[in-house]
Amino acid sequence: MSDRTPNSSVQSFPNGSSAAAPETAEALALPDLPYEEWSDTLDTLHLFAQIVGKVKLAATHPQNHWWNVTFSVDARGLTTRRLYTHGIFFDIAFDFVDHRLVVRTDRGETRAFPLDGGLSVAQFDRTLHGTLAELGVDVPLLEHPFGVPHLTTPFADDTEHRAYRRDFVERYWRALGWSADVFQEFMGWFTGKVSPVHVFWHSFDLATARFSGKRAAPRAGADPVTAEAYTHEVVSFGWWPGDPKVRHASYYSYTAPQPEGLAAHPLSPPQAAWVDDGAMAVLPYDAVRTDAEPRRALLAFLQTAFDAGSRAAHWPADELTSTWCPTSDQLRALSRAGLSRH
Question: Pairing between strand 280-284 and 110-114?
Fold first, then answer.
């Protein structure tokens, strides 16, 4: 393992965490992402992602909690990582720098087509399948959206959704990439089972999760997708860009199974709140974006939401901290900081 020279702008906690670090002016410039101004583009992008996500579902081995179907955040957008079918390894990537969909195989072949220019969902679906067939890796799909009540038209018939504003896709990508990096730091503070920091294409949210290690009681009447997702006790965290029900980008956290007294625990910063009868903690993205120390504000939210869930559910949280985790005093200072600065 090579030595790494730390960024001089990062003021780490004594044991290595950068949670207390002030941020550069560049890091503070998180983009505005008003849902009403780009919801048509968001819907188009979400449907594109569903089609690619279903390809991944068909070309990966099943994994607990459906982790095999998610997208990873990379340096230019989103990637499926490695897929396999018909004896060929391949991957698919959304390149939000050049606004292309890129397909590569282990035989050295690369194909790409533009995402903008009025491409409808039906055209995207047809073009992707044609590209995959040309490369010998096409797979059959259930060709309609999953889990999105306001998007129900079969992919091959959807000529309505074709909006694609580059500027808002780039804003989305910058907010997503920054949030994924903060989540990645936070997950490093925990030594128990953790999920990757990844994007679920059915709900189009960035998510990660911490687990106690204990099995959860089966959910009565749960569908197979939900039953597989919640086999173990979990505190989950995420960021979504908004939808017709929640018309603004937000961070969230919930504990499953939901323990009694969850919402009695405080959250930080003060803009965070318990909603849905205390089932979910929510912090508006704009509260983080406009904070003087956005990284610290988000870390405070994640930590206080985890404290709430782990304490209410009686997890041995103190036994699950890593060597990269701030000390107990530093975590308390982090949680208090959001409140004192407001």
Answer: unpaired
Domain map of the chain by residue range? 35-157, 166-340
What global pTM score does this model have?
0.90
Calpha distance 92→80 (Å, rounded):
6
pLDDT in tens, the chain (342 residues): 333 333 333 334 434 445 444 555 445 589 999 999 999 999 999 999 999 999 999 999 998 998 899 999 999 999 999 999 999 999 999 999 999 999 999 999 999 999 999 999 999 999 999 999 999 999 999 999 998 999 999 999 999 999 999 999 999 999 999 999 999 999 999 999 999 999 999 999 999 999 999 999 888 888 888 888 888 999 999 999 999 999 999 999 999 999 999 999 999 999 999 999 889 999 999 999 999 999 999 999 999 999 999 999 999 988 888 988 998 888 888 877 655 444
Phi/psi region, residue 99 (left: phi>0; alpha: psi -120 to 50; beta: rest), is: left
